[in-house]
Amino acid sequence: MAVVYLAASQGPRGFSKLVVVKELKREFTEDAEFSSMFVDEARLAARLNHPNIVQTYEVEEHDGHFFIVMEYLEGQPLSQTRTRLARLGSQLRDHQVRVLCDVLEALHSAHELADYDGRPLNVVHRDVSPHNIIITYDGVAKLVDFGIAKAADSTSQTRTGVIKGKLAYMAPEQAFGKPVDRRADIFAIGVILWEAITGRRMWKGFAEGAIAHRLSVGDIPKMTEHVPEPPPMLKAICERALAPRSADRYPTAAAMRADLEKYLATLAQKPTARELGALVSQAFGEERARIASLVEEQMRVLRAPTAEASGAVDVPRINQAMPSLTPHASTPVSKSAPLSGHMAAARSTPQPEHGYPVRWLVLGGIALVIIGAAATTAIMLPWAQGLGGN
Question: Which regions of the chain does DSSP assign to beta strands (E)?
């Protein structure tokens, strides 16, 4: 529902910083539901403050159009990271456990978020998946894309028969449109842990209808069919997180994280962020160098005298989509998004003196989904029709 741009935040005396600007697609600006979802995301994102959650710098509005300005994450989604490293022969299980500890800490922070009067907001991400976990080249895990998150103060409502998220990582109650709480996110982490232990997708080879049926009867694939002797501690943690009944799962993300930390403490060689960062940097060296070259090329244009004299510039476009930066295969990548008038105005408007930009300069309309920020809305199969929304 959004286009995500790589942009340069420019200020006085040559100050510049790469940021990501997310804009609601024009065709959705007149749709009340999508506009409400985007505003809800902006409001929630601005409140989240955790080192393992993508940082939101500002929320802008101009002539009814909303923009979310976020940190630029230089790295790769976990979905691509584990595929690439597995292909290169790297053993990634325990590194993924370390990553999930950080993501669980981030989730607990979001789950515990309260309004200014202390009222719990009951935030549920609802789209936790390897696509929405970014591993930076420093080995830091960042949870992204709260575009379909549910909170107590949300203005948008999910329609009956419309299920939001990725079915392969959904808890049974979410898949069938029932009310969800933080334990739905814990189930999703359980799926990712199952995949880390087995080295394969949990629902690989299953059609959506088959996944839905098995979720409805609590028939979760057994990891021992693929790994005869998984580490007993990890197996027990995973099975509890994947309990079909939410009441049987971990009550909080912090509780699951504590058990995973106990497992890591038993290892003779504990995984570190530095080691993971080195693996990711080596595996994606070509992609990283290519992006750095393209960014530097366009930054030179932005630093030109004509760019300094105006609030918005037109610079060379990148005419090819970059698969390594596209965690959501279904999300369209804009190849030549024009710099619209209202975006130019937003970038040239002076900002309050809080250390953030004087203007935003879009780098050639490079539309990226490096942060997985384009939320998806999946209209499920006929079995979902008639079920209550949440």
Answer: 2-10, 16-24, 56-62, 65-71, 75-77, 133-136, 141-143, 162-163, 359-367, 378-379
Tokens 């990271």 locate to: 81
Burial of 214 (0-12, 13-18, 19+ CB in 10 A): middle
128-141 pLDDT, tens digit per residue, is: 999 999 999 999 99
| Residue 67: strand pairing partners | 23, 60
Give me the active site residues, please.
127
Handedness of CA 48, 377, 339, 334 (dihedral sign): positive
pLDDT tens column, 74-97: 999 999 999 999 887 777 899 999
Burial class (CB in 10 A: 0-12, 13-18, 19+), 337: middle
Write the CA distances from 292 to 174, 287, 369, integer angstroms.
Answer: 40, 9, 16
Domains of the chain with CATH codes: 2-74+285-367 (3.30.200.20), 76-279+377-384 (1.10.510.10)
Chain centre to alpha carbon of residue 73:
11
Scanning 149-252, the segments in alpha helix (DSSP H) are 172-175, 182-198, 208-216, 232-241
Q: Which two tokens stand for residue 282?
A: 């080596």
